[in-house]
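Posting for a labmate who doesn't have an account.
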Amino acid sequence: MIKKFLDKKSDYFYFVFRVIIGLLFLLHGIQKTPGIMNGSTSLFSLIGIAALIEVVGGIMIIVGLLTRYVALVAAVEMLVAYFKVHFPGGINPLVNKGEAALLFFVAFLVIMAFGPKKFALDYLIKKQSK
């Protein structure tokens, strides 16, 4: 009974998953923007590029536009963030504060594997081109 319900509603659950991951990623990027806005951080620094990827990528994941490609770029960014920023603080992500980067990485792997699904601009574009 539960399996039947979950199978029937899987598109809705995945939509919620994709939107929440995209929203959290967007917020993760927005928290980096004050330094860019006040000029203390360059847009072309690692933090500036990360903010750009996270803000634009978060929006694109939310609306489901170029979903798999954006998820790939975001996953790579999270790996770079983990190994460049967090890993030098130790291997344990709870100690080096890298658990968010690893969770985002895994979430983006899921999004890459499943794609945009039904409730996404990619789906509408594909549907209209047929």
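Reply:
Got it, the structure tokens are right above this. The chain is about 75% helix and 0% strand.
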